[in-house]
Design brief:
By secondary structure, the chain is an alpha/beta fold. Helix content is 26%, strand content 21%. It is built from 12 helices and 16 strands. The strands form 3 sheets. It has a 9-stranded mixed β-sheet. A 5-stranded mixed β-sheet has the order 2-1-3-4-5, with helices on both faces. A two-stranded antiparallel ribbon has the order 11-12. β8, α9 and β9 form a beta-alpha-beta unit. α3 runs parallel beside α4.
Length: 390
């Protein structure tokens, strides 16, 4: 394993914990030996470079720093990493990829070069970009990177016509999802899914019944509930689960039900409505302003259709099980009226990959190129007030 590959592996340990900061890994090498390593700590704490420098101590002088993202050069909740690198006497900084945020955007490299620190960019760049695809989307658009996830049978059903859906996929696929939740900022569902399945939406290191949850990051649980139908008896409210639950509703919500939820430590926020439901664009703006950079949407066909119609989906994870359900009334992953045009107008996923998980197969694909979402673009928080830098 190369030093930059090691840095990428270290960066993965920060996913879920460090948002809205990017997940960064750093390795310091002197005379062919690793003298310091680090990854981004939770927001407001040390960045990867500083962790590695502190571990190295005096051995950082004359060393080469391998880091997965361009070091920050501004003051946020922590001092600039470039200052620490220069003060430690690091000779060279090898960077996997640039930081496209407006508060860095090659400024870190310029500061290092001006101080006589040699820099090189591009080693393992694709790995570093994929690792922080959510952060890059957030800094460009101000809205979270949204992944739509669903499990379906080989004939495209997410449940039987009577609503039974446990379990479509096998334990390997379910374990993959549970671990995926630990890497995202938020998990989103619609109220229909909550009423039908009474989910927990927790990140579990093992299977569904694994109760050892303290050592993994727990995402924010987001429920889109236009009329505040979420019952105080639901597991998301009364189950004593780790991590917070957020209900996004509209003015249709009953004041008494809102009070019941708030009294049980559920955060309730009223947003604008569109066609009688919570406006998806407002949801994404709100979450982006809150510093949520990544969302895993796990709802049913209604939520999936709304997210796609709003242009809010970046990535699709489709788990396909070798089962047949049949039935014209059995629900499918994407509801709504569907495409009325010809098949060549269908949404085509780019860069598709297939992964075997036990007896199931996972299709991963992207809905759009990584470009700013001009229709929803907004001003994201300045580094001085919210964003501490990478």
């Amino acid at each position: 394993m190369s030093q930059m590959e090691r840095a990428v592996e270290l960066a993965k340990r920060a996913l879920g914990w460090c948002s809205p900061n990017p997940a960064v890994g750093a390795v310091l090498v002197r005379d062919g030996q690793i003298v310091g390593e680090g990854w981004t700590q939770p927001a407001g704490q040390d960045h990867a470079e500083v962790v590695a420098l502190r571990q190295a101590g005096p051995a950082a002088a004359g060393a080469t720093l391998y880091v997965t993202l361009e070091p920050c050069n501004h003051v946020g909740r922590t001092p600039p990493c470039t200052d620490a690198i220069i003060a430690a006497g690091v000779r060279e900084v090898r960077i996997a990829t640039h930081d496209p945020s407006p508060w860095v955007n090659r400024g870190g490299i310029e500061v290092l070069e001006a101080a006589g620190v040699h820099t090189a960019v591009g080693e393992r760049e694709r790995d570093a970009v994929l690792l922080n695809e959510a952060y890059f989307a957030w800094v460009r658009s101000g809205t979270p990177f949204l992944t739509l996830k669903y499990a379906m049978t080989a004939d495209g059903k997410i449940a039987t016509r009577t609503g039974s859906s446990f379990w479509i996929t096998g334990p390997e696929a379910r374990r993959h999802v549970a671990q995926l939740r630990a890497t995202v900022d938020a998990v989103m569902v619609g109220i229909g899914t909550v009423l039908a399945d009474d989910p927990r939406l927790t990140a579990r290191p093992g299977d569904r019944d694994d109760e050892h949850l303290d050592d993994v990051h727990q995402p924010l649980r987001v429920v889109l509930d236009s009329a505040a139908r979420l019952s105080p008896a639901a597991t998301l409210v009364s189950g004593g689960l780790p991590g917070p639950t957020l209900v996004l509703t509209t003015e249709r919500a009953s004041a008494s039900r809102v009070r019941e939820l708030v009294d049980r430590a559920v955060e309730v926020v009223v947003l604008a409505a569109r066609d009688g439901r919570v406006d998806i664009c407002e949801v994404l703006r709100f979450l982006g302003n809150r510093g949520v950079t990544s969302v895993l949407a796990e709802g049913g066909g209604t939520l999936a259709a709304s997210l796609l119609a709003a242009g809010g989906v970046d990535k699709v994870l489709a788990f396909v099980a070798p089962k047949l359900v049949g039935g014209s009334d059995a629900p499918t992953p994407v509801g709504g009226t569907g495409l009325s045009d010809t098949m060549d107008r269908a949404i085509e996923l780019r860069d598709p990959t297939w992964t075997v998980l036990g007896r199931d197969v996972l299709l991963t694909g992207y809905v759009r190129d990584a470009e700013p979402r001009t229709l929803m673009r907004q001003s994201i928080p300045k580094p001085e007030s919210q964003r501490p830098g990478p």
